[in-house]
Design goal:
six-stranded antiparallel β-sheet; 4 domains; Trypsin Inhibitor V, Chain A; three-stranded antiparallel β-sheet; alpha+beta; disordered N terminus; 631 residues; elongated; Transferase(Phosphotransferase), domain 1; Ser/Thr_kinase_AS
């Protein structure tokens, strides 16, 4: 088959709405395009499923599963999740529309090799937090890997893509071929051996991802997928410290727990794994957190031996001190003359030599020297000795510097190599080392604004705040910080705070078409407060729910109010006032254009309306009389 170099979908208008602009990526399940939503005038990602996934007898089953999983993913709201907007079909095309995240993915960051442990923990924290939100809704990702962790351009914030969408594809693949779908390097042993997938399989994949972030490599190597799969099933993941000598036992224990071959020995879901990750983070020394994963391989025996036997000392700064200028040669001996003449000439010569020496050292070249090289970047005492040897008087000032170690010279005034009068002061700027600030106590538990103010007061101004839904903390309360209470950290430290957005939103049930009482009971069962509004409708029978605010299927906070709009039937239809107080019933009937006649003892004893004549839903010309019974 000839190779196709052009993509026929570029430029196509999908479903009369989405204009495909460019292809972003192609994977085993789908091709992702950048597209423009002409209706909402925004840029989106359009994910087009490969047609072969729904061919033959499995087409209908695939479409049902695909739509079901897309709806589940669309209901997942989390700052670390790529949002799913819509799903649909256009001819034989099955597609999803999602949030477009410009930038790169975690695979590229791993390849670059400059990930620090601190950054790796921050990425894993967001991934597990997003998975925890999914697992709480019964959604399993099934395909966690670096390619599915996108990094926002500019901010570098991670977002997890393809939530829940592998399930529909996996079920069709299992049914038709008996194979397991997924990226073999991250598949859990039980998924490979039995096809079983639950939240613990996602935890295993995150454990493999953590190993890769910490060491820059995957734990199992092989010539092909079969050998790698065999290793997952039959071999434990090795300790990370075996591949990166600066990593210690806490990281070994974390990765071992996440990647246990027996799923019963792993954390039960991502929320439990997230707690383990954050507890481990607290045990890592600050100096280790900022070492890039690729910067500290385990030392070899040869390197250890060389370090012991090949110590090279830096030459003393004084070796580069400028030498004093050569003294002028003495004057030639006087010519033979009579004795008196010799005495006069000798006196003149002495005076000339003394004057020359005075001029040379006080006004001439001998009054100056050159500031020696090699005083910048050495210890302060060594630099002072070099300046003194060169004929200068050293003085010093101190300042903080994030690059020059404490006690070493940052700069010299005047600069090295410049001429300067002898015995004049030469100023050395000495490093105090990196300026440190003490992390305020009690950040976790403060409100987000209070925590930021406390950090600024401590001298830490580079603060990034993200928010996530959680049941663990009150809304606007800090639930995690990238620095620990009382730690001394550089003042330019990038501090990350995670602030609670309160409990996760719940989905409003769909109650349109139900009776008002049934709809109210359904909503109250999900802990919503219910308010009722009524309006006339020519087509919908009285007492039937026309709609809700928020609409069914939308997300809303637990305990919030949902308003149901109930039909009063066509105008000229008696409203349903049974159960209302006499005052409310009378007001409702009069608002509908009827006069009211009261019967019974409800006015005396406070009972509500028990019956109307004509009954609710009956037609009665406006201005007619409705009898209200109250016993």
């Amino acid at each position: 088959m000839a190779q196709v170099t052009a993509d026929s979908l570029i430029g196509r208008l999908v479903d009369g709405r989405y204009q495909i602009v460019a292809r972003v990526a192609r994977g085993g399940m789908a091709t992702v395009y950048r597209a423009h939503d002409n209706r909402l005038n925004r840029e989106i990602a359009l994910k087009v499923m490969h047609p072969h996934l729904a061919e033959g007898d499995q087409a209908a089953s695939f479409l049902q599963r695909f739509e079901r999983e897309a709806r589940s993913a669309a209901g997942l709201q989390h700052h670390g999740v790529v949002a799913v907007y819509d799903q649909g079909t256009d001819g034989d095309m099955r597609y999803l529309t999602m949030e477009y995240v410009p930038g790169t993915n975690l695979r590229q960051l791993i390849r670059d090799g400059d990930l620090t442990l601190r950054r790796s923990f921050a990425v894993l924290d967001v991934v597990l937090s997003a998975l925890a939100a999914a697992h709480a809704k019964g959604i399993v990702h099934r395909d966690i890997k670096p390619e599915n962790v996108l990094l926002e351009q500019g901010t570098g914030r991670p977002k997890v893509a393809d939530f829940g969408l592998a399930r529909a594809i996996s079920e069709v693949s299992n049914t038709t071929t008996g194979t397991v779908l997924g990226t073999v390097a991250y598949l859990a042993p039980e998924t490979i051996s039995t096809g079983h997938v639950d939240a613990r399989a996602d935890v295993y994949a995150v454990g493999i991802l953590a190993f890769e972030l910490f060491t820059g490599r995957l734990p199992h190597a092989g010539e092909g997928p079969i050998q790698v799969a065999y290793a997952h099933v039959n071999t434990d993941v090795p300790p990370v410290s075996a591949f990166a000598g600066h990593l210690g036992r806490p990281l070994d224990l974390l990765v071992r727990a996440l990647t246990a071959r027996d799923p019963d020995r792993r954390p039960s879901d991502a929320a439990v794994a997230l707690d383990a990750l954050r507890n481990t983070f607290q045990q890592i020394p600050n100096e280790v957190l900022d070492i890039p994963a690729s910067a500290a391989p385990p030392p070899s025996q040869a390197a250890v031996k060389a370090a012991r036997t090949a110590v090279v000392e830096r030459p003393a700064a004084g070796r580069w001190a400028a030498q004093r200028p050569q003294q002028p040669p003495p004057p030639p001996p006087p010519a033979r003359s009579p004795r008196r003449g010799r005495k006069v000439l000798l006196a003149v010569a002495v005076v000339a030599v003394l004057f020359s020496a005075w001029w040379y050292t006080e006004r001439g070249p001998g009054a100056y020297a050159v500031v020696p090289d090699g005083v910048v970047g050495v210890a302060a005492q060594q630099a002072e000795e070099a300046l003194t040897e060169a004929g200068f008087t050293p003085s010093s000032v101190e300042q903080y510097d994030s690059e020059v170690p404490e006690g070493e010279v940052i700069s010299v005034v005047p600069d090295e190599g410049q001429r300067w009068e002898r015995d004049e002061r030469v100023r050395l700027v000495i490093s105090l080392g990196q300026e440190l600030a003490e992390v305020p106590a009690g950040l976790v538990g403060m409100t987000g604004q209070t925590a930021q103010a406390a950090l600024r007061e401590a001298g830490l101004t580079d603060v990034e705040v993200s928010r996530e839904y959680t049941n663990d903390g009150a809304r606007d309360e800090v639930i995690w910080a990238s620095v620990r209470d009382g730690d001394m950290v550089p003042t330019d430290e990038h501090v990350r705070l995670t602030v609670s957005d309160g409990p996760p939103p719940v989905t409003v049930p769909e109650v349109v078409g139900l009776g008002a009482d049934e709809a109210t009971g359904t909503l109250e069962a999900d802990d919503f407060d219910v308010q009722r509004q009524e309006r006339f409708d020519e087509k919908v029978p009285a007492g039937t729910v026309l709609g809700t605010e928020p609409a069914g299927g939308a997300g809303a906070q637990q305990g919030s109010t949902v308003t149901i709009v109930v039909s009063q039937g066509p105008e000229g239809t008696v409203p349903d006032v049974v159960g209302m107080s006499v005052e409310d019933a009378q007001a409702t009937l009069e608002e509908a254009g009827y006069t009211v006649a009261l019967r019974g003892f409800g006015e005396l004893f406070g009972d509500g309306v028990t019956e109307t004549k004509p009954a609710a839903g009956k037609h009665l010309k406006q201005g007619g009389e409705v009898t209200v019974w109250t016993w």
